[in-house]
Design a protein that fits this description.
GO terms for molecular function: 4-(cytidine 5'-diphospho)-2-C-methyl-D-erythritol kinase activity; ATP binding. Its EC number is 2.7.1.148. Belongs to the GHMP kinase family. IspE subfamily. The active site is at residues 15, 140. This protein has 281 residues and is α+β, with helices and mostly antiparallel strands. The protein folds into two domains: 10-161, Ribosomal Protein S5, domain 2 (2-Layer Sandwich); 168-271, Alpha-Beta Plaits (2-Layer Sandwich). Helix content is 27%, strand content 26%. Strands 1, 2, 3, 4, 5 and 6 form a six-stranded mixed sheet that branches. The longest helix is centred in the middle third of the chain and has 16 residues, at 105-120. The relative contact order is 0.19.
Length: 281
């Protein structure tokens, strides 16, 4: 019997983009990216309870997000539609990851819903099939279904898995919600960084093409990044922001910088994971 049951706490971990290059744009407007995703041990948590009426209900709505538009609800209903499943579920979501933080919280929640309900409903889809469903929900969803630290290309759906060294990350969260669409839609966004082969990428190399746009439009992001770079010159923004981070080889060094955070600055330490907690599901 699987350890994962209806009573389990199902994790939805955050991701960091260890670099993020925009290498082009498709005719349909979607941006072509190259990035390395790393999972960290900061996470939302989901619980599921079965329903006999076939409905999907989010018992803990996210403030400011209509239930019908919530990625967790959309993921569950998409799985029902794809498989013809008539079972239902009540979803309890404990949010620990900030909205608009670039940590993939909503996408991670959606992926955990797909993985969990595919298992609990015995829907029978493969992980590859779940990745394809996830892509209908958003570009970051497939990597959370994929479950491995990976070099991603395309719109974020083509993966070449990577081995990453142990690290502790100091993550700072500016008190601002950065809308992804506004960053990708900015006319000044650099969209022609030369692509690289996954085999040629080395840990610690690369940059985030979205960072200059976010810093120019959201001074809070620029301020947090400037402070962090005083202590870790390699610090960068994750995703389209707002969170910025720096990796450290040992936790003691990361903790020492963490203790120097100015009053009013929010942040936390998180360990890099070798894989998603549900990778072997």
């Amino acid at each position: 019997m699987s350890l994962w049951s209806w009573g389990s706490a199902w994790p939805a971990p955050a991701k960091l983009n260890l670099f993020l290059h925009v290498v082009g744009r498709r005719p349909d407007g979607y941006h072509l990216l190259q990035t390395v995703y790393r999972f960290i041990d900061r996470a939302d948590t989901l619980h599921f309870a079965p329903r006999d009426d076939g409905d999907v209900v989010l018992a803990t709505p996210t403030p400011g997000v209509e239930a019908a538009n919530d990625l967790a609800i959309r993921a569950a209903r998409l799985l029902q539609e794809a498989t013809g499943c008539r079972q239902g579920a009540t979803i309890h979501l404990s949010k620990n990851l900030p909205l608009g933080g670039g940590l993939g919280g909503g996408s991670s929640d959606a992926a955990t819903v797909l993985l969990a309900l595919n298992h609990l409903w015995q829907a029978g889809l493969s992980r590859a099939e779940l990745e394809q469903l996830g892509l209908q929900l958003g570009a970051d969803v497939p990597v959370f279904v994929h479950g491995r630290n990976t070099f991603a290309e395309g719109v974020g759906e083509a993966f070449s898995d990577v081995e990453l060294p142990p690290a502790t990350y100091l993550v700072l969260h500016p008190a601002v919600n950065v809308p992804t669409g506004a960053i990708f839609g900015a006319p000044e966004l650099k969209r022609d960084t030369p692509p690289i082969r996954p085999a040629d990428w080395r840990h610690g190399t690369g940059h985030n093409d979205l960072e200059p746009v976010a810093c120019a439009r959201f001074p809070q992001v620029a301020g947090h990044l400037a402070w962090l770079r005083q202590h870790a010159p390699h610090a960068m923004m994750t995703g389209s922001g707002a969170c910025v981070f720096a990796g450290f080889a040992d936790r003691a060094t990361a903790a020492a910088v963490f203790r120097q955070m100015p009053p009013g600055m929010t942040g936390w330490l998180a360990a890099g994971l070798t894989e998603h907690p549900l990778a072997s599901l």
